[in-house]
Amino acid sequence: MRRVRYEVNGGPEVLFVEDVTAPQPGPGELLIDVAAVGVTLPMVRKVREGSEPVALGGEVAGTVTALGEGVTEFAVGERVTGLCFGHGYAEQAVLRPAMTSRIPAHAGFVDAIALVRSGMVARGAYAAGRPEPGESVLVTAAASAIGTLVLQFAKAGGARRVVAAVSSAEKADFVREAGADEVVVYGDESWGEPVDVIVDGVGGELLGPAVRALSAGGRLVAFSSGGGTIEAYDLLVGGKSAIGFQMAVLARNKPALYARWLDELWELHAAGKLRTTVAATLPLEAAAEAHALIEARRNLGKVVLVTGQA
Ligand SMILES: NC(=O)c1ccc[n+]([C@@H]2O[C@H](COP(=O)([O-])OP(=O)(O)OC[C@H]3O[C@@H](n4cnc5c(N)ncnc54)[C@H](OP(=O)(O)O)[C@@H]3O)[C@@H](O)[C@H]2O)c1
């Protein structure tokens, strides 16, 4: 089978395709024929900035072809999506049942990649800000796969004002289409009227202006892989809060809530109430192009690799 790998950390050019023997599922694992793979900023960062090469894992979707010893949750032939901890940029991948779920009949593999992980992070990060109907919400990286979904949750949740924050004014039309009432660019002198909740997918140097943009009592949800520092004094003044959110913690600590939210995601999707946007669908061989697209911050929505096995 074909898979994408790299041997030295660096830019997208370090990625290459190789032919290798297909993996076998161990006890408690399942094997899938991969149809679609999600390309995400955290993985792009690991390739560029990591201290050593890692397997290009992450979100994959495909058809179950074999079950390891003891796996009873899934059957061969079922269409599933899940988080892969080994090699995921590949024609076949190994998953664990706990982080795998079925794809409903109405949806395709690319839909699953655009919806499930991004949608769960969007739902969880939005809820972590404890938004009340009638409050205002600002979303950074608003044109990203997760950001476009947070905009929709905020709108559907009755936010009085939904503000999209993006790195370039070129993304304005796209985020308005996704539900934003106002658009600000990070470098703008002011981000407008202070907001009650900020859902931040950027971090780093953006945390300062983000905390300043909060109203008194406002909450900032930090869920990005961008790091950064918040001064306690800046929170104290105005009685503001910073809240961390990580989907893996939610999945591990609150499995029943995770399962309910996952069902709700698919119901909203089936009813046309939650729209995913796919920025690019590229073949596995074009993984470097997919990484370059995200590094250049040009993606509007989800970047997906496909193997041709859909
Ligand atoms: N907490 C969790 O459980 C969890 C899980 C998955 C992902 N995440 C985080 O969620 C954030 C958004 O992920 P995603 O999958 O929605 O992103 P994505 O679709 O891959 O898009 C990445 C977007 O992030 C923005 N961005 C911010 N800093 C960037 C940088 N240094 N380089 C390139 N792009 C940058 C860009 O939009 P602008 O140029 O408009 O800023 C870009 O379009 C990421 O920070 C990711 O680490 C968190």
UniProtKB/TrEMBL annotation:
Q: Which domain of life is it from?
A: Bacteria
Which one of the record's GO molecular function terms can you name? Answer: 2-chloroacrylate reductase activity
Alphabetical UniProt keywords: NADP, Oxidoreductase
What is the E.C. number?
A: 1.3.1.103
Pinpoint the Enoyl reductase (ER) domain residues.
10-305
Q: Name one GO cellular component term.
A: cytosol
The protein depicted here goes by the name: 2-haloacrylate reductase
Source organism: Streptomyces hundungensis
